[in-house]
Every structure is written in C-alpha cells, then in structure tokens.
Amino acid sequence: MKDYDDTAPASGIEDWCDRHSSLIEEYALQIVSIPSPQPEGDVRGVADKLAEIASTIPGVRIERYISEEPVHNLVLTLAGSRPGPRLIFNGHTDTFPLGNLDTWSKNPWGEVAGDRIYGLGISDMKGGLAASLFALKCLAECQPDFPGEIVCTFAGDEETMGSLGTKYLLESVPHARGDAMISGDVGSPSILRVGEKGMIWATLRATGQSAHAAHVHKGDSAIEKLTAAMARISELREWEVSDAAPDVHTLIDRWSEASESLSGPGETEVLKSVTVTFGTFNGGRLPNLVADAAEMSVDIRLPVGVAVADIEAHLERICAGIDGVTLEITRRFEPSWTDPESSIVTTVRNACAHVLEDEIAVTMRVGASDARLYRYAGVPSVVCGLTPFNMGAADEYILRDELSALGKIFALSALHFLSGQSPTR
Hints:
Elements: H1 8-19, H2 21-32, H3 44-54, E1 60-68, E2 71-79, E3 82-92, E4 111-113, E5 116-118, H4 122-142, E6 147-155, H5 166-172, E7 180-183, E8 191-196, E9 198-207, H6 222-234, H7 246-254, H8 256-263, H9 267-272, E10 275-283, E11 293-302, H10 308-320, E12 325-333, E13 336-337, H11 343-356, E14 361-365, H12 371-376, E15 381-383, E16 397-399, H13 400-420
Parallel strand pairs: 3-6, 3-7, 7-15, 8-14
Antiparallel strand pairs: 1-2, 2-6, 4-5, 5-16, 8-13, 9-11, 9-12, 10-11
Helix pairs in contact: 1-13, 2-3, 2-4, 2-13, 4-13, 11-13
C-alpha cells in the first residue's frame, strides 16, 4: 500500500473536519428524521431535506430528477477551479420498512445516546449520505482550488434494485457518470468492497390436476412438480466456478479473517460459491385435495466466474424436463468487480488507513448495491460505508466516531483523487 501523501492541503482538510465534527452528526440526524421506507418508496421528503442541506454549501448546483412519483433523485455538483476528473459520491435515500415501533427502545427518527446514533436507515445508508455532504462542504469551504468536479448522485430507489434510481440517472443524466465512484453504502471503512456477486430472481409455476386425496390416482400434483424442480435447482450450489478471475478469489482468501470478523463465519465460501435460496412457496387449496397449481420463488447469487446465461440455461433445462412447470426470470445481473489496484481503490484505502491508523482490507461484498450499476457503466467503484448494528431491525445504530472518520475519509479521498489523476473523458 502506498504511503499517504500528508501534504499541506490535506492537513487543512483534516483540521477543517476536526473543527466541524459536530456538523456531520447534525446532517445525519436531519436526514434520518425524514421517513423514506420501501415498499412505499416515497422519498420526496428526504430529497427536500438533502436539497436544503446542499443549499448551504457554497457553489453547489442542485438538480432534481423524478423517474416516477414519488421517486425523486438528486444530483449535486461542485465544480473545481480548473478542468480535471469527475468523482461521484453515490448513495440511496430509501430504507427498509420500520416494522413494529413497539420493539424500538430508541427514536427511529434519530437519537444520540452515548457513542451511538440511532435511527431507521442510519447505517443503510443515511449516515453515508451525511458523510458525502460533509465532504462536499469541506472541499467547498476549505479547499475550493481543486481540479475537476464532485458529483453526488442521491438515488430514490435502491432497496428494490435501483431501476428508478441510480440506473435511471446513469441512463438519463450525462454527468451522473464519472471517472470513479465512492459509495457510502453500509459496510465498514476498515473493509472496502470492490465487487459483488451477480443475481438471478426467478419464479417457477406448476399446473396439475386436482383430485380428492382418496382418489390420488386421478390427480397430478403441482406441488410435487415444484419440489422436484427445487431438488434439482439446489444442486446449483455445487456448480463449478471458473478460474477466469483467480485474482478475485485470491483477494477473498487474503482478507477472509478480517471480513468474517464483521460479516460472520462462512462468508468466504459464500463469496466464492453459487448460493440458492427459496424465498416463497405457495400451492394447493385444501389438505385433502391434490394441488392443481403451485408457485415458488428462488434467489440465486453468482460469484465472479459464473455467468448469468449459463445458470439461466440450466434453469430452463430443469423446467423443460418437468411437465407443467414454467419459468419466469424476474431480475438478473452479472457479477462485477473493480481492480483493487485502481486509482480510486488505492486512494480510498490510503485515506482509510491514515484516518483509522490501521491496515485496511479490500474484498468482495455479499449483498448487492448500486456500485454494480456504476461498474456496468465502466466506472471504477468502491464501497466504503458505516458498520451496521441491528440493520433492518429495531434500534439500528452506528458509532459516532466512525461517522466522523468517514466524513474525513471522503473529504481526503476526494482531494487526493481529483488532484492526482488526469481526466479520462
């Protein structure tokens, strides 16, 4: 890992971050105070709040793009003093649903207690949004003489896979693309994530012949057809993974211990294997009737080295071999990854190591994020977010010190990336 370039401008950035450390908490509490849960997907209020905060940052241009109501996406642009690269800070404004309010002991709309900040979506990822805004304000006020520009793409649709959010912006707004992207999505500044598994969501349906259970010989069970398909689909867990990307597997193994300390034992094998999850199964009408219809859903995650087309072809063969079973692919995307030696990864890693005074892991990510959409668009991307506690459950929280550290990491990363790389556009 390269030594960190502790130049005078960078020292000024750090001093500014230290003097304004309370500001990032204020941003986080303001953002988390506005509900924006899926599946409702109404992010208008939080978009208003983000625009309000951005309006206090000198020189920021604020644009709002509505893919469809109530999904409002924001694009914030801070131009430097001269031509240079474009760095994207990407984030999403929607969250998991609240669930049962009675299970919360803290205020889901924001509360500081001790070394923690509580709130629904504070880790996924309203704290990350606060860090992006904090970095934007830092450079605008402390170091405005930088080359290029910083663009924040704040998407209103990510929890449902981003078609109305980041994907929409990448397809509709030219300056939503850049030379590199940093995502503050949930994770850890100690473990950077440079790639993700692919995914296939599929729905299988079966038809049969209903009959009374006493006359089972007259029936044809749709449920049994799907359980037969289920058994064959389960065998995908043994799918042989290509060695097409051995560097990825080496990376996963290299940082296995550090990553599993956060994500749990077994993550390493999950990252390198095809996984299969049967999410729903419905069928039949009565206990004493042979089921004439059944339906199930399946989630299949693909490591680097496995192609979506190959898995889909295998699913089609399975369904074609069972009479009355049909297959619908409802969502698909390929595995993606950014070279861990790319400029954006090394820049962010150096900033993390400098601020945290520790060795920083670089590996793949188990869950999906909008970073994959940037990689598909040819933009090198890295996820550097906040460590989640109780994510998606009652009393979700983050650590105050880590939030402050992330804001400083983002500001330093932006300064060094923009100053150290020639534009590629």
